[in-house]
Write a structure and sequence with these properties.
The structure holds two protein chains of two kinds. Chain A has helices spanning 3-6, 15-35, 38-47, 83-87, 129-132, 151-160, 170-178, 225-228, 239-258, 264-287, 294-300, 304-317, 339-363, 439-449, and strands at 9-10, 13-14, 63-68, 104-107, 114-117, 122-125, 138-145, 188-191, 216-218, 322-326, 370-375, 379-385, 400-403, 407-412, 420-422, 424-425, 432-434, 437-438, 459-461, 464-466. Chain A is α/β, with parallel strands linked by helices. Chain A has a single domain (61-238, 285-479), classed as Alkaline Phosphatase, subunit A (3-Layer(aba) Sandwich). Among the domains of chain B are: 2-138, no CATH class; 157-243 and 553-604, no CATH class; 387-457, no CATH class; 621-685, no CATH class; 703-760 and 939-956; 769-929, Jelly Rolls (Sandwich), CATH 2.60.120. Classes of the chains: A alpha/beta, B alpha+beta. The interface between A and B is large, with 89 and 97 residues.
Chain lengths: 481, 957
């Protein structure tokens, strides 16, 4: 085959050159306009749903890293300091006893100490000393609340806005709205080591949106690229042979198109072969943390969490729109027992990695338009969980039950106020009482930061215009810088 | 003002729904008072929340009808009676009207001024004046889809001068519209195109080369009709069109998420899928087809043969959630599926657009509320009488015993405690402790899993049946069980049955509901299905919202044609095959996918709504996969039975319609290829083109496996030359022979591939690594390398021959595995691992080598560059572990590095372990890259795969 067949020159730039640039963030809107071909434009804009799209208004955040402390981290042991708990330690709390999943008893003080950090003096417990170094970038919401104290519906609410119906996840919605900045990588990646959280892949599914928006699950326990993304590598067809093969395919495809003019679907598929070919290289590159200098790798830490936070940064750096980083399979933060040891261990695994991520993003200028979100599906009770026969009777307890009445989350970067604590729980940290922020409000705010009116980013399905926030949600402007 | 009019048009269907569009006469002054005082007030202070689809509490203040209707819960304005109008209490911030609570309004901004309150009060006193023209809205009962299906006469002939090419009525309607637009059909497609189109369309498989030739050469005038008939009679027709219906039926083999060890599989879901395939193959009339799916329990009551009970999987195979959500799922699949009506929208409020009041929803919900699954699904087949089955029964009894042994003593104890329900085991079970219940669920889960895994049980049908004791239903306000509203009777939809529809009389009413759906006077059912059939033949329906014929749906592109088809469908005895024949024999269907005046037409009708050409269609996931298997000569044409995992290896060769569909964790490849989401009913699959689809074609083990088999099936050894092989491969994959130019191109490709491959000298394994034996020749400064050809799959290692120690070649224990290896006793035959650079780069190779024994004289590691010779040497003498590094190594494209480990002089205890990697443009870890005979593809395989990757393979003209 002659080179001229292969490198069809379009608008002065070779196809390959265009695709290379496209991979570097130019996006295919630019590609289409450069090609100036009606068919190509139609192809990339109507058939590839991941083409970059404009939001409703100026966006503060272009991409999201959502660190999911699945299981439900305890607010009174992390970001919501409650000295009153020490005073009431071992005593019954005054006032109405709020109902949670299991029976809880007396108040239990936090085994962790809190200290003020940064110029803002945000109080953070000893569980997160590294994260605390970025206190002045944190926007802590202390008045979060959800609907029920059970994992399954709360995970669904946090991720999809609906507790029961299988609707699209937030990452899918945002990709639906914005498309991707890098077509050589999936637009929505969910990192979860060792398996899947409860509710499994439903946490990142596209629901009724096209499958192109579904989250790609990466089991970060693995390091080999072919175990991370399906079909990303072909060990049996070396790249020089495959390139030749692809050239043949494309030549046959162009011949096929000659007698079938003006078909954007044919053209789109031709292009998607080139994208796929490039994706093989770029994806391998994105997940290969060994390319990072040693001092960076050390700063993130040796463990799994260090590696996956570093992968997260490499992904957003390359234009992946939405990266979710799960602590692990199942519900690791679900410390019904021994909160001191359990939360101590969990935070020990991730604090350094998250702290470094924040600093690293900031140092690279990425934090400005990358929204980092940390939190679980709910929080935990300030009261001690009572032993349940059969469930955890054998344990000495000293753990906390689920709590949807009030909990803490934080955000950083992406246009949020730094060094700020929003709202408050009651004096024991049980229930959000001041400026309560429902999960739908948080989602509305995230969508706002991404440039969307959450009520207007809708998709018609089953006779109804669905949106992330169901029928609720108000943007919390106080959170925005 | 403008915005107001728009929103009022958008949502103003209340007039019909509430029947309160009293076009009262108002004086000019009253109307002016409204326009100057009231309307601006409403716009400014109320419309932020109370207009449009998302109006708060359902209260819309943008039309008089909306004002009079009130919220979803109650009226807020009584014309002429301010003291009974909650709206006025709200703006006055008076919290109570009688006993009823009133929320203060507006919630945002300041309170209304005293003057504004007075104005509103005055307005209510006047009787709520509102100009008439704006409150008169489209009467939804006049919407096209709710009108009776009319027998349409064909457009009169003069319109058709010079156009009609047959007597098919379809063409008359289509050509009439084209003529009006000054356009015409494309010419008829050639025979080759037609047979591929028909075959893909009707059976989801491409024709073979021989079938194409036979059809092209068939001179019979009935050749085309005969082909249509042959394909319709093929059992594979049911597999293809059955899958279309399974999209509608949101078919899945699992219930969705279940925690706590509860079994998720339905276990018998396949009996429904098989029933659908059989019913379509037998051309069961469509009305019967629906009746069985909704009410087979009634229809088979008197019959010995219970097989048709399987049809009710249509209702039962949905996602399982709460009882109310399950009912909603069944209503949704029923009414969007059969009548293209979004009845589900009326669950929380009257339908916002279509004339479906909440009362209708709960009336029908009560039909399903009074239908339940029996505790044991009825058996509809005989178990296999075999030793395996008897063995299964023994094991099953053991598992059952584990459940019983746990449960029975506890129930006995409870029976003593609650003597009045001592014999009601299920009621007693409800009294178990929470922990006991959890344990019971787990044990039952183990049992269910065993049953599901074994696949030994006789077929069962997943049915609904009427509850023994029927209970009336209530409206649930806002869909909430904690807010029951008024009682409802079970009856059919008012939009079809008219006001005050007769109450269902038999049991739950499910049969009567089904009969009302298939009643020939139902305007929606025949139209909906005729449209679905059209949609699959043409890629787009005549109505492009195939499951929403309501006011928010699209209007038909050819309304008369849709009616004509619906009439033909019913008159043809609801035969789907007759309907297919009618459509397939039209010139409209037979036209080519390119119109010679396309360049001009595309500007006028870019979406091809007028059908001036055939739509070129891309294969869906299933036919794509099945066609690849067929090209490889490996398609298993066996029908029916339990679902098979499509993506598990070794890959099944069954058709994709038999795929196991896991609702909770569907393999992402399904979504990648736009498969119908099994969460809910799918009217039309999405269409996307994304690189992960093409990655599948290029790299998936599945496609590569088929390419390999295409080559195998060609039977190379018996062929004269490569040209013959190319020719056969074209026949198998594309059902044609290559052109002379394509042949030249293919041969050149094969030669080029061989050129690249020979430069590699590696037919063994993965891209970067090769495993061999040999030694470093110090004189020639190069490594003598020979590939190890034997893979021991059990020990996962490469070795010289099948047996170890090797006597045939005298290499003894020589082998290499992921973590290390062993050289032979001869320093000339050491272990050699070769890494080849795919592009120019500077690399570092580093790692560790370790021995576990003190004995002997140790081993020697050498790192050798293909051009530069020896670059690093390391001896491991005792029981020790040593690191080695060679960095800054310049590699040109195609250069390689050899790591040679030999035994030195002595042959004692030379077993070694190692780990190392090459760090260049990326990291190549030996351990990660190590693998068995992932043999490099051959040039012919790459050619076969290229053909599978083409648009010609993937699209149907």
């Amino acid at each position: 085959m002659r080179d001229s067949d292969r490198e069809q020159v379009l608008g002065g730039l070779s196809r390959r050159e265009l695709l290379r640039r496209c991979g570097m963030g130019m996006g295919s809107v630019a590609l289409a306009s450069l090609l100036g071909k009606e068919s190509v434009q139609a192809a990339t804009s109507s058939l590839n749903p991941l083409v970059p799209k404009a939001p409703h208004f100026d966006q503060r955040a272009k991409r999201v890293i959502h660190i999911f402390a699945n299981g439900g981290p305890s607010q009174v042991d992390t970001f919501d300091h409650k000295p009153m708990l020490t005073k009431y330690h071992g005593k019954t709390l005054p006032g109405d006893h709020l109902k949670t999943e299991r029976k809880t008893g007396a108040a239990m003080r936090s085994p962790f100490e809190f200290h003020p950090y940064g110029e803002s003096g945000l109080e953070i417990s000893d569980l997160f000393p590294n994260v605390a170094q970025s206190a002045d970038d944190l926007c802590v919401i202390r008045s979060m609340h959800a609907d029920v104290p059970n994992h399954e519906p709360s995970l669904m609410l946090m991720n999809t806005g609906f507790s029961r119906q299988p609707t699209p996840s937030m990452g899918a919605w945002i990709n639906y709205g914005l498309g991707t900045e890098n077509e050589n990588l999936p637009g929505f990646v969910s990192l979860c080591p060792g398996g899947v959280p409860i509710m499994e892949t439903q946490n990142w599914r596209a629901g009724f949106l096209p499958g192109a928006f579904q989250g790609t699950h990466i089991d970060t326990k693995h390091t080999a690229i072919d175990k991370l993304i399906a079909n990303i590598e072909n060990k049996r067809n070396p790249s020089d042979l495959q390139r030749q093969q692809l050239n043949l395919v494309q030549s046959l495809n162009r011949k096929f198109s000659e007698s079938r003019p003006r078909d954007s679907k044919l053209e789109a598929r031709i292009q998607s072969y080139e994208l796929a070919y490039r994706m093989q290289m770029e994806a391998s590159d994105a997940f290969d943390v060994s390319k990072e200098p040693a001092h960076i790798r050390e700063a993130y830490g040796e463990g799994l969490q260090g590696r996956q936070m570093l992968i997260a940064r490499r992904l957003v750096e390359r234009g992946v729109r939405f990266v979710q980083v799960w602590h692990g399979a199942g519900q690791p933060w679900d410390s019904h027992n021994k909160i001191k040891q359990e939360h101590g261990r969990l935070a020990g695994e991730c604090d350094q990695a998250i702290g470094t991520l924040l600093k690293d993003l900031k140092q690279r200028g990425l934090l400005e338009d990358t929204l980092v979100i940390w939190g679980g599906e709910f929080g935990r009770t300030p009261t001690v969980e009572l032993p349940t026969p059969g469930a955890n009777a054998a344990d000495t307890k000293l753990g906390r039950d689920h709590n949807h009445h009030g909990f803490s989350m934080w955000m950083a970067g992406g246009g949020v106020k730094g060094g700020y604590a929003h709202g408050a729980t009651d004096e024991f940290g049980f229930k959000a009482v001041e400026k309560p922020v429902h999960v739908h409000d948080l989602q509305a705010t995230i969508m706002h930061l991404m440039g969307f009116d959450h009520e207007k980013l809708t998709y018609r399905y089953s006779g109804r215009d669905y949106r992330l926030t169901d029928l609720d949600g108000e943007v919390v402007h106080d959170l925005i810088a | 003002m403008r915005a107001w009019v728009l929103s009022s048009l958008m949502c103003g269907v209340w007039a019909w729904a509430t029947g309160t569009n009293l076009a009262a006469d108002f004086s000019k002054q009253q109307l002016e008072f409204f326009e100057h005082t009231i309307r601006p007030l409403l716009v400014e202070r109320c419309y932020e929340c109370h207009t449009g689809h998302g109006a708060k509490s359902g209260l819309k203040l943008d039309s008089r009808a909306g004002v009079l209707r009130g919220t979803d819960y109650r009226k807020v304005v009584v014309p002429g009676q301010p003291e009974k109008s909650a709206l006025l209490f709200a703006v006055k911030h008076v919290a109570k009207m009688g006993a009823a609570k009133v929320e203060s309004m507006p919630r945002k901004g300041d309170r209304l001024s005293a003057q504004a309150v007075a104005d509103l009060t005055q307005w209510v006193k006047m009787g709520v004046p509102w100009p008439e023209e704006e409150s008169s809205e489209e009467d939804p009962s006049l919407h096209w889809a709710f009108q009776p299906v009319v027998r349409r006469s064909l457009p009169s002939l003069p319109l058709l001068k010079g156009a009609s090419r047959g007597e098919n009525g379809i063409d008359a309607f289509v050509e009439a519209r084209l003529q009006q637009a000054g356009m015409s059909l494309a010419g008829e497609a050639d025979r080759r195109t037609l047979i591929r189109r028909l075959s893909m369309d009707l059976i989801g498989l491409p024709p073979t080369f021989e079938q194409v030739q036979a059809f092209v050469e068939d001179e019979s005038p009935r050749a085309y009709q005969d082909l249509v008939d042959r394909l319709l009679q093929s059992p594979q027709y049911g597999e293809r069109w059955g899958r279309h219906w399974l999209d509608v039926a949101r078919y899945s083999d699992t219930k969705g998420y279940r925690g706590g060890g509860v079994e998720r599989r339905f276990i018998y879901s396949y009996t429904y899928r098989d029933w659908v395939i059989r019913a379509l193959n037998e051309d069961l009339p469509y009305d019967q087809f629906l009746l069985y799916q909704l009410a087979a329990d009634y229809l088979t009551k008197e019959s010995q043969d219970k097989k048709d009970l399987a049809a009710m999987g249509f209702l039962t195979l949905g996602r399982r959630s709460t009882a109310d959500d399950d009912i909603d799922d069944r209503l949704d699949v029923t009414f969007r599926g059969t009548m293209a009506l979004t009845v589900s929208c009326a669950r929380c409020h009257d339908h916002k657009f279509d004339p479906i009041p909440t009362e209708d929803y709960y009336s029908l919900a009560n039909v399903f509320f009074n239908s339940e699954e029996p505790r044991e699904a009825p058996v509809i087949g005989a178990p296999e009488d075999s030793a395996a089955y008897r063995e299964y029964l023994v094991k099953l009894a053991e598992k059952q015993k584990a459940v019983d042994d746990f449960l029975n003593p506890k129930l006995d104890k409870l029976a003593k405690k609650f003597p009045n329900i001592a014999n009601r085991r299920f009621q007693l079970r409800a009294k178990l402790e929470r922990v006991e219940k959890r344990e019971l669920r787990k044990l039952q889960g183990v049992l269910d899993k065993f049953v599901a895994d074994s696949g030994m049980e006789a077929d069962r049908a997943l049915i609904l049946q009427d509850k023994a004791k029927l209970r009336p239903g209530r409206i649930l306000i806002r869909g909430s069980r904690s807010r029951p509203g008024k009682l409802v009777k079970r009856h059919f939809l008012q939009v079809v049955a008219g006001e005050n529809p007769p109450e269902f009389k038999r049991g739950s009413g499910r049969l009567e509901m089904a009969q009302a759906i298939v009643d020939v006077n139902n305007p929606l059912t025949a139209r909906t299905m005729a449209n679905r059939v059209w949609q699959h033949h043409f890629g787009q329906g005549l109505v492009r919202t195939p499951s929403d014929f309501g006011l928010q749906g699209e209007k038909p592109t050819h309304p008369e044609l849709l009616d004509w088809l619906a009439v033909k469908f019913i008159e043809g005895g609801w035969s789907l095959k007759n309907l297919h024949r009618l459509i397939l024999n039209s010139a409209t269907y037979k036209q080519g996918s390119v119109n010679e005046r396309g360049a001009e037409y595309v500007a006028r009708d870019p979406e091809n709504r007028l059908l001036w050409r055939m739509n070129r269609l891309r294969l869906e996931f299933e036919p794509m996969r099945d066609a690849a298997l067929m090209a490889a000569g490996r398609l298993d044409e066996g029908m029916f039975g339990r679902s098979v995992k499509l993506t598990a290896r070794p890959f099944t060769q069954r058709r994709a319609v038999y795929a196991y569909i896991d609702r909770q964790n569907l393999d992402p490849v399904f979504g990648t290829f736009d498969f119908a989401s099994p969460q809910k009913h799918t009217a039309q699959r999405p269409y996307t083109t994304i690189p992960t689809q093409t990655l599948f074609m290029l790299n998936s083990p599945f496609v590569m496996e088929q390419a390999e088999h295409v080559v195998k099936s060609v039977g190379l050894s018996s062929l004269k030359d490569e040209g013959a092989a190319v020719n056969l491969m074209y026949r198998k994959v594309l059902a044609r022979e290559p052109s002379a130019q394509e042949m030249r191109q293919a041969l050149a490709f094969l030669a080029n591939q061989r050129g690249l491959a020979s430069a590699r000298d590696n037919q063994q394994t993965s891209t970067a690594w090769q495993y061999g034996e040999g030694h470093y020749d110090e004189g020639k400064k190069q490594v003598f390398f020979s590939s190890l050809s034997n893979w021991d799959a059990k020990s996962k290692r490469w070795q010289p021959t099948a047996v170890m120690p090797d006597r045939e070649k005298g290499m003894g224990y020589l082998h290499v595995y992921k973590g290390g290896g062993h050289p032979s006793n001869d320093p000339k035959h050491g272990v050699v691992v070769r890494w080849q650079a795919a592009s120019a780069m500077r690399v570092a190779v580093s790692g560790h080598l370790q021995r576990r024994s003190e004995k002997g004289d140790g081993v020697r590691l050498r790192v050798v560059h293909s051009r530069l010779g020896l670059i690093r040497e390391q001896l491991i003498l005792g029981e020790e572990k040593k690191g080695f590094v060679a960095d800054g190594v310049e590699m040109k494209k195609g250069d390689f590095l050899d790591l040679v480990v030999d035994c030195r002089e002595g042959s004692n205890s030379d077993s070694f372990t190692w780990d190392f990697d090459v760090q260049g443009s990326r990291k190549w870890s030996f351990a990660d890259g190590f693998g068995g005979p992932g043999r490099i593809v051959t040039p012919l395989e790459n050619l076969a795969q290229a053909l599978l990757c083409t648009n010609e393979f993937m699209f149907v003209d």
